Amino acid sequence: MRILVVEDHPDLAATIGDYLQARGHAVDFAYDGRTGYAAACEPDFDVIVLDRNLPGQDGATLCRRLRGEAGVATPVLMLTALDTVDDRVAGLSAGADDYLIKPFAMAELEARLLALHRRAAGAVATQPLRVADLVYDPQTREARRAGQPVPLNPTTRKILEYLMRQTHRVVSREELEHLLWGDEVPEGDVLRAHIHVLRAAVDRAFTSKLLQTVRGAGYRLASTE
Prior knowledge:
This protein is an alpha/beta fold. The protein has helices at 10-22, 33-40, 59-67, 85-93, 106-126, 154-165, 173-181, 190-203; strands at residues 2-6, 26-30, 47-51, 76-80, 98-101, 129-131, 134-137, 142-145, 148-150, 211-214, 218-221. The radius of gyration is 21 Å and the shape is elongated.
């Protein structure tokens, strides 16, 4: 998982980071409400660990802003030293998905974060993906553009779904090659051939082109309008 820890006590933040990184997770840090809000708005994290009491802006206000004005849906686990019903209700009402009282066991923290990530991934996996007039349904594995079927084979289907889930950024060639073949990438520019087939299926019949090649960087599937 990619985890953002927003915690103003450096020792606790370091302890959390050391434990989670040793378990194979990637961890970034913010130490106050302002930088925590800016970091949490980036689409780079699977879960957020958020302290209830932060300098600059408390965790409940920060979470409320994330859910409201920023539209961030990343799961949030809130940490607090205040073990009262009112405090827990306030945090959950602000948009937190779970609550953990200090002091806590690191194993429990990781277990709760994994559970939040699984729930979020399950919800995302079953929802239709949309980019402009292109729709892909992960349940039926069918794609349509402007209501017309988009022909896909297993490889182009995998590329399409991945690019649609990453529409906010450019996906590198290396990332797509690893997605398709792991560490055993075939010789020759096989990826380019698959991209050519996918582009024909998605864009050939339409004036607006969605599958973009970003020279020197990779590919992106997004509306240009």
